[in-house]
Automatic annotation (TrEMBL):
Major place of residence: membrane
Name by which UniProt lists this protein: MFS transporter
Organism: Streptomyces spinoverrucosus
InterPro entries to which the protein is assigned, alphabetical: MFS, MFS_dom, MFS_Efflux_Transporters, MFS_trans_sf
Record domain Major facilitator superfamily (MFS) profile: where: 4-380
UniProt keyword terms in alphabetical order: Cell membrane, Membrane, Transmembrane, Transmembrane helix
GO MF: transmembrane transporter activity
Pfam families: MFS_1 (PF07690)
A Gene Ontology cellular-component term: plasma membrane
Length: 406
C-alpha cells in the first residue's frame, strides 16, 4: 500500500480523537466554565452539526480544486478550530469553536476516500479506504483515552492543544506524502457533483449508512448503563471496555476492507446481518461480565465491517462526481449518531429495560438490511451484469467519461 495512506490515517486519527474526547471531558469543561453537564453536552451536538453541514458544503465548494490542496486546507481548518477551542474564554465561544472543528470532518474523509482509492489497483480499493479509517478506529483505542487523561491532569484546554499538534503533523504528512498526480480535481465541477446526488442508488446507499450505523449508536450511546447495571461492572472499568470496543472496530474495519475487495455487497449484507444478531443477543450477553466484554468487542467488529463497503458503494453510485457523495456519507454517519441515540433513548425512557436500546438497534439494523436489499434490487433492474461478478468501484472518472460532463 502507498505510504501516502499514512498521511490520511494521521488526519483521521486527529479527527477521531477530537470527535470523541469531549464525552470524557464534559465534567471538567462544565466545572471550569461554570455550566451544567447537560449544557456542556451541547458541545458534542455542535461538533456533529458542523460535520453534517460542512461535509457536503465544503466538498461542493472545493469541487474544482486539487484534492491534495483541499485535504491540506481542511486540516488547517481543523487545527484552527481546535486551537480556538483551547483558548475559548467561555461556553459560547467554545460552542462556536467546536462547530468550526466539525466542519472539515466529513469532507476530509469523503475527499480522502477518493484520493485513497485513486492511488491503488482496483482490487485493493476497499483496503485503501479501511487503512484511512484505521486512524479513526485507533483513536478510540489510544487517542481518546490518552487525550482524556491529559485533560483530567493538565486541564481540558491542554487536550485541544494536543489535538491541534496532531493536526499540524497531519498537514506536514499530507504535504510530503500525497502525490500531485493522483489528486486531480473533478472535471464536472460543482454542477456535476450536485447532479450526482439526484441518483436514487446514491440515496439508498446513504439511507443504508443512516440505518446501519444508527443501529450501532442506538446501543453504543447507552453502553455504560448496560455494563454497570446489567453486567455488574464498576464504573472505573468502563473506559477499558470502551477501548475493547475500539479494538473490535479496528478488526472489523480491516476485515471489511479486505472482504469488500472480493465481494462488496456480500460484505455489506454479512456485516448488517451480524449486527442484527449481536444486538438481538445483547440482553443475554449483558447478563455476565465475560459475555458483556465479548459483546462490546463484537459490536465494534460487526458495525465497522460495513464501513468500507458503504463508503465505496456511495462512491460507485456517484462515480462521475464522487467527492460530494463520499462526503455526504460522512454526514449520514453523524445523522446516524444523533438519530440512533435518540431512538435508543426512547426505548430506555419507555421503561423497556437497560438493554432495550440494543433491541431498538437490532430493529434499525433490520431496516438497514431492507434498504440495502432495495438498493440491490434497483441495481439489478438498472444494470444487467455481463459476467455475474460485482463491478469494481471507480475512484475517478475516465477521461472519455469526463468529457461527457464538460
Amino acid at each position: 500500500m502507498p505510504l501516502a495512506l499514512l498521511a490520511l490515517a494521521v488526519g483521521a486519527f486527529g479527527i477521531g480523537t477530537t470527535e470523541f474526547v469531549m464525552m470524557g471531558l464534559l465534567p471538567d469543561v462544565a466545572d471550569d466554565l461554570h455550566i451544567s453537564i447537560p449544557t456542556a453536552g451541547h458541545l458534542v451536538s455542535a461538533y456533529a452539526l458542523g460535520v453534517v453541514i460542512g461535509a457536503p458544503l465544503l466538498a461542493a465548494v472545493t469541487a474544482r480544486m486539487s484534492r491534495r490542496t483541499v485535504l491540506i486546507g481542511l486540516m488547517v481548518l481543523f487545527v484552527v478550530g481546535n486551537a480556538l477551542s483551547a483558548f475559548a474564554p467561555d461556553h459560547h465561544w467554545l460552542l462556536a469553536a467546536r462547530f468550526l472543528s466539525g466542519l472539515p470532518h466529513g469532507a476530509f474523509f469523503g475527499v480522502g476516500a477518493v484520493v485513497a482509492t485513486g492511488m491503488v489497483a482496483p482490487e485493493r480499493k476497499a483496503r485503501s479506504v479501511s487503512l484511512m479509517f484505521l486512524g479513526l478506529t485507533v483513536a478510540n483505542i489510544a487517542g481518546v483515552p490518552v487525550a482524556t487523561l491529559m485533560g483530567q491532569h493538565l486541564g481540558w484546554r491542554a487536550t485541544f492543544l494536543g489535538v491541534s499538534a496532531i493536526g499540524v503533523a497531519a498537514i506536514a504528512s499530507l504535504a510530503l506524502l500525497i502525490p500531485h498526480d493522483h489528486t486531480h480535481a473533478s472535471a464536472s465541477g460543482l454542477r456535476g457533483e450536485l447532479a450526482a446526488l439526484k441518483s436514487l442508488p446514491v440515496w439508498l446507499a446513504l439511507g443504508t449508512t443512516v440505518a446501519g450505523f444508527g443501529a450501532l449508536f442506538a446501543a453504543y450511546s447507552y453502553i455504560t448503563p448496560m455494563l454497570t447495571d446489567s453486567a455488574g461492572y464498576a464504573e472505573t472499568s468502563v473506559t477499558l471496555l470502551l477501548a475493547l470496543f475500539g479494538v473490535g472496530a479496528t478488526i472489523g474495519n480491516l476485515l471489511g476492507g479486505r472482504l469488500a475487495d472480493h465481494a462488496m455487497r456480500g460484505t455489506l449484507f454479512g456485516g448488517l446481518a451480524s449486527l442484527v444478531a449481536i444486538l438481538a443477543l445483547f440482553p443475554v450477553l449483558m447478563s455476565a461480565q465475560w459475555s458483556a466484554a465479548l459483546g462490546v468487542a463484537l459490536l465494534g467488529t460487526a458495525a465497522f465491517v460495513t464501513g468500507s463497503p458503504l463508503q465505496l458503494m456511495v462512491m460507485e453510485k456517484a462515480s462521475a462526481a464522487p467527492s460530494l457523495a463520499s462526503s455526504a456519507n460522512q454526514a449520514a454517519f453523524n445523522l446516524a449518531n444523533a438519530g440512533g441515540a435518540w431512538i435508543g433513548g426512547l426505548a430506555l425512557a419507555a421503561g423497556f429495560g437497560t438493554t432495550s436500546p440494543a433491541t431498538a438497534g437490532a430493529a434499525l439494523a433490520v431496516l438497514g438490511l431492507a434498504v440495502a436489499g432495495t438498493a440491490y434490487a434497483v441495481d439489478r433492474r438498472r444494470v444487467a451484469p455481463r459476467d455475474g461478478r460485482e463491478r469494481l468501484v471507480a475512484s475517478h472518472v475516465p477521461q472519455h467519461a469526463e468529457a461527457l460532463h464538460r
